Backbone:
């Protein structure tokens, strides 16, 4: 059973993150997500552009 404080404090902790910091780290987050998807996806599943 959840205690009554966790439900009330969770939205506050989430909204304390500045939006500007989130947008500044967006390329880093996108790179981490992309690398994680490429590592867990089967070989040839993720599109990889060919170098001419």
Residues:
């Amino acid at each position: 059973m959840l205690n009554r404080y966790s439900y009330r404090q969770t939205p506050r902790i989430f909204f304390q993150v500045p939006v500007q910091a989130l947008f500044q780290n967006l390329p880093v987050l996108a790179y981490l997500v992309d690398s994680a998807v490429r590592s867990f996806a089967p070989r040839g599943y993720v599109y990889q552009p060919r170098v001419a």
